[in-house]
Each structure stands twice: as C-alpha cells, then as structure tokens.
Amino acid sequence: MSTNTKKGLINIGSFVLGFGFLGALDGIVFHQLLQWHSVIMETDRPGQIASDGLFHFAVTLTLVLGGILLWLAGNPTSLSKGIRLLVGGFLIGGGAFNLIEGIVNHHLLQIHRVKPGDPNALTYDLAFLGLGILLLVIGYFIKRGGKSQPTTLGA
After folding, report:
1. Nearest-10 crossing angle of helices 3-26, 79-101
2. CA distance 89 to 16
3. In the chain, where the domains are located
4. Is 14 left (phi over 0), alpha (psi -120 to 50) or beta?
5. Which among 112, 29, 109, 16 has a CA at the least distance from the CA of 66?
6. pLDDT tens digits for 78-98?
7. 50: left (phi over 0), alpha (psi -120 to 50) or beta
C-alpha cells in the first residue's frame, strides 16, 4: 500500500472515528445520563427511545467504520506522524460532529436543544458549538504538528 493511500485511510478513519465517538458521547451523556434531551423531543417516551436507538445505532456503525478504515491503513510509516494524524483527525471529526449536529438539529431543524426548557438554553447550545470549534482548532494544530505553514498574500 502506498504511503499516500495509508495517510488517506488514517485521515478518513480517524475523522470518522472521532465523529462517531463524539456522537456516542453525546448520546450517553446528554440523552441517557443527564436526560436533558432526546433526538426527537416532540414524541412520547417510546418515540424518544426509538429515535435515540436509531441515533446510537448510527454512531455505532460510524465507530465500526472508523475502526475498519484505521485497520486497513495498517501501521503508519512514522509512528509520531501516525499518532498526530490519528489524534488530530479524531478531534477534527469530533468537532465536526458537534458543529453539524448543533447547527442542524439545534438551530436549523430545531429538533431539540442541548438543555431544553432551561432559561439559558441558548448558552448551552452556543457552548456546544464552541466546543466543536475548539476541538477542530486543536485537532488542526495537532495534525499539522506545530510546523509553520507558508502564508500567501492575495489570491
């Protein structure tokens, strides 16, 4: 397998794994432990359990897919670079989950809020998005490995 193919699989696999992990963490913490919300709030409890079950099934499949992609990538040619790609991509994927889920479900579709019914519900929603941005930024810098990137002025 070529180095570029291996790097591509590590990039995609770590992103997918991070995306699925943050999805699972969201479901475990916000849906089950804190019971702040369900995927679809405007249903009876059995409907909420079914929507959460479908969500958990989807993130489980995402975790499995990420693991398979990383397994297919095999051992990285450089361990330190492989770890940077794995951790960076994982954090970028997790941040992407928070941003996509937060923007789509909390704001565009208004399916649920992070903590519905709370007088500070918007603060919770914005903190959720802020965490997504923070994960993306940290993941980017880890993946980049502290190297300064050349900048160009103009288009």
Report:
1. 40
2. 8
3. 3-144
4. alpha
5. 16
6. 888 889 999 999 999 999 999
7. alpha
